[in-house]
């Protein structure tokens, strides 16, 4: 019985009756089949703040920030074709905007977070606008440089408390607020983005990624849509930044830390590019993992990289793509 | 009848480095014309299309469309004026159903303006356009993924993308290439129908016999220069055209 005598047969599950991309459901069983994975994610995330202890609650908040950033990264990279390494810039702009509004104008977090998201997103979009003509790796390099650039401006000009930052910002009322703001934020963004990419807007953006010449020939300005896409991603990232400033009641240069640019990418690679849910799952695995490995000291980074390497080598499609396939298909060995 | 001139290309040139791709080419196009552009490989035919539709900026020369200077305008603005093109190498959005490919042009400012935003369900508009161009709805062809369609349908999809924009001029870059005889025979009535509906065509083509069934005028290019222009039959009998096109040294 060698491998040549048999082959693996894959069949789509028959309950998935396809009709023009819609599912026609005929029973509760089928409904449950489609709802189950979504409910596990939603229910799991909503329940987590209730069961975790204080330390892991903080980890959940951090994981939420990375999940939000990863969503923005995945949206830009997989649906618009812009690989943006500027997660740190979004966090920084959002965080500083929220912190400054709070420190200088004494606005409460309920106002500063949405305001900072919009202000930060506008600023990020303006800064990135000249780079939107760049493609591929060039855009990535510029976006990677911008956070470094901004930190040096802040230091050189001694702005906003310079290297010290500003402490004593308002924090969120209690730990449940802290967690639910970000958990609900993650869920809302996940399902919102899912919806968006299936609308005409998402289709046009995907068109730009696949074949920008054809989109131009169809009379559509790719620049305008790229600006819009960057604004959406920046809005998402700056929301995370504003939340982070109020989570720790502090703003400073570490808001521009490279972690915010790198970890979302790792989460996206692990979870699966283009799935949107993948990056969330990736962030929810990687952030606690890096906490759990804290005992290993510097070896933590090695282990961390090792796990990532394994994923890139052996499961480049990512966790969610893999699980989705397994969930939707029967597999059995068949004699040839 | 100067007002009938829809497109006027004057002395347009483009060189890439040392290569002169197009040299001082000019032609005019009246409404309802079908102009064939022919010439050996590398003669600059596709570059000419790129120059007219704004994908490549000309070094000098002018392109006038409906008495407006459109030289150097961005490709999407030119397409919005009703001057649209097909691509020689089609790259439809492979993973999407064929009709979803038309959602992009249907969202263009031109279509939105023409219909004042009351187009209704874009999906059904897209399917109607595809049905018109020969995607059998009963066989569910418009719903098949674009990547799985045979070449003939992909070429038609490319044309459908243009038609969705309600164009005045379509510049076809080798729509017949790679198609079987029967696919071409079914494509020709579609082109004729478009011409009857008042669309003006420029067709870059290698399949001369089929081209001449549609085109009433040809422009012959060689090494970036226009070497002849005129009614199809007479032009092709000219000696210099024969030499350029058939490559014969004119020995007999």
Task: Write a compact overview of the structure shown.
Chain A is mostly helical. Chain A has helices at 28-51, 54-80, 87-105, 109-128, 136-157, 175-198, 200-210, 212-217, 222-248, 259-271, 277-292, 299-314, 319-328; strands spanning 6-12, 18-19, 22-23, 166-167, 250-251, 329-335.
Key traits:
A: 336 residues, mainly alpha, two-stranded antiparallel sheet, 7% strand, B: alpha/beta, 10 helices, globular
Describe this entry's structure for a reader.
The complex is a heterodimer of chains A (336) and B (252). Chain A has 336 residues and is mostly helical. Chain A has a domain at 54-258. Helix content of chain A is 70%, strand content 7%. Chain A has helices at 28-51, 54-80, 87-105, 109-128, 136-157, 175-198, 200-210, 212-217, 222-248, 259-271, 277-292, 299-314, 319-328, and strands at residues 6-12, 18-19, 22-23, 166-167, 250-251, 329-335. In chain A, the strands form three sheets. Chain A has a two-stranded antiparallel ribbon with strand order 1-6. A two-stranded antiparallel ribbon of chain A has the order 2-3. In chain A, strands 4-5 form a two-stranded antiparallel sheet. In chain A, a hairpin with a 2-residue loop joins strand 2 and strand 3 (22-23). In chain A, helix 3 (87-105) runs parallel beside helix 5 (136-157) and helix 6 (175-198) packs antiparallel against helix 9 (222-248). Chain B is of the alpha/beta class and 252 residues long. Chain B has a domain at 2-92 and 168-246: Rossmann fold (3-Layer(aba) Sandwich), CATH 3.40.50.300. Chain B has helices spanning 45-52, 75-80, 103-106, 109-115, 122-132, 151-163, 181-196, 208-214, 232-237, 239-246; strands spanning 5-16, 19-30, 34-38, 60-65, 68-69, 83-85, 169-173, 200-204, 217-222, 225-231. In chain B, the strands form two sheets. Chain B has a six-stranded mixed sheet with strand order 6-7-8-3-9-10, sandwiched between helices. Chain B has a four-stranded antiparallel sheet with strand order 2-1-4-5, covered by helices on one side. In chain B, strand 1 (5-16) and strand 2 form a beta hairpin. Chain B is globular and about 50 Å long. Chain B starts with a strand and ends in a 6-residue tail after the last helix. The mean pLDDT of chain B is 83. Classes of the chains: A mainly alpha (336), B alpha/beta (252). At the A-B interface, helix 7 and helix 8 of A face helix 2, helix 3 and helix 4 of B.
């Amino acid at each position: 019985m060698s491998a040549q005598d048999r082959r693996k047969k894959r069949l789509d599950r028959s309950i998935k009756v396809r009709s023009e991309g819609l599912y026609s459901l005929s029973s509760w069983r089928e409904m449950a089949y489609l709802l189950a994975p979504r409910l596990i994610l939603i229910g799991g995330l909503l329940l987590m703040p209730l069961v975790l202890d204080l330390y892991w609650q903080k980890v959940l908040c951090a994981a939420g920030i990375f999940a939000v950033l990863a969503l923005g990264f995945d949206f830009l990279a997989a649906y618009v074709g812009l690989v943006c390494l500027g997660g740190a810039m979004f966090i920084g702009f959002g965080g500083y905007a929220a912190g400054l509004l709070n420190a200088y104008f004494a606005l409460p977090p309920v106002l500063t977070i949405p305001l900072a998201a919009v202000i930060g997103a506008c600023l990020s979009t303006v800064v990135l606008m000249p780079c939107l003509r760049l493609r591929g790796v060039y855009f990535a390099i510029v976006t990677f440089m911008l956070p470094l650039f901004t930190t040096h401006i802040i230091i050189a000009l001694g702005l906003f408390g310079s290297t010290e930052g500003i402490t004593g910002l308002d924090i969120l009322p209690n730990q449940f607020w802290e967690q639910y703001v970000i958990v609900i934020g993650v869920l809302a963004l996940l399902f919102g983005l899912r919806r968006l990419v299936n609308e005409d807007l998402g289709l046009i953006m995907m068109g730009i990624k696949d074949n920008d010449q054809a989109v131009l020939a169809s009379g559509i300005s790719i620049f305008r849509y790229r600006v819009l896409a960057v604004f959406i991603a920046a809005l998402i990232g700056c929301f995370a930044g504003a939340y982070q400033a109020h989570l720790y009641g502090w703003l400073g240069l570490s808001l521009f830390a490279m972690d915010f640019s790198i970890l979302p990418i790792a989460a996206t690679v692990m979870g699966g590019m283009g799935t949107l849910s993948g990056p969330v799952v990736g962030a929810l695995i990687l952030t606690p993992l890096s906490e759990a490995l804290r005992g290993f000291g510097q070896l933590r980074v090695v282990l961390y990289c090792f796990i990532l390497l394994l994923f890139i080598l052996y499961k480049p499609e990512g966790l969610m793509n893999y699980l989705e396939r397994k969930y939707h298909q029967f597999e059995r060995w068949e004699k040839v | 009848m100067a007002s009938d001139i829809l497109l006027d290309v004057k002395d347009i040139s483009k060189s890439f480095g040392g290569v002169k791709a197009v040299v001082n080419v000019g032609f005019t196009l009246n409404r309802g014309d079908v102009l064939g552009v022919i010439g050996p490989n590398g003669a600059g035919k596709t570059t000419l299309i790129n120059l007219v539709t704004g994908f490549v900026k000309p070094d000098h020369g002018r392109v006038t469309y409906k008495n407006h200077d459109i030289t150097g305008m961005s490709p999407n603005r030119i397409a919005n004026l009703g001057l649209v093109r097909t691509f020689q190498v089609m790259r439809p959005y492979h993973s999407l159903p064929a009709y979803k490919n038309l959602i992009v042009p249907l969202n263009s400012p031109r279509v939105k303006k023409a219909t004042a935003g009351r187009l209704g369900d874009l999906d059904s508009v897209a399917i109607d356009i595809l049905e018109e161009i020969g995607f059998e709805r009963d066989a569910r062809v418009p719903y098949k993924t674009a990547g799985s369609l045979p070449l003939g349908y992909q070429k038609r999809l490319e044309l459908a993308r243009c038609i969705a924009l309600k164009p005045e001029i379509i510049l076809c870059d080798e729509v017949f290439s790679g198609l079987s005889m029967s696919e071409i025979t079914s494509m020709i009535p579609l082109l004729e129908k478009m011409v009857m509906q008042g669309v003006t065509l420029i067709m870059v083509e290698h399949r001369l016999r089929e081209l001449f069934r549609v085109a009433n005028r040809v422009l012959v290019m060689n090494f970036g220069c226009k070497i002849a222009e005129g009614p199809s039959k007479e032009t092709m009998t000219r000696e210099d055209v024969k030499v350029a096109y058939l490559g014969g040294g004119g020995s007999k």
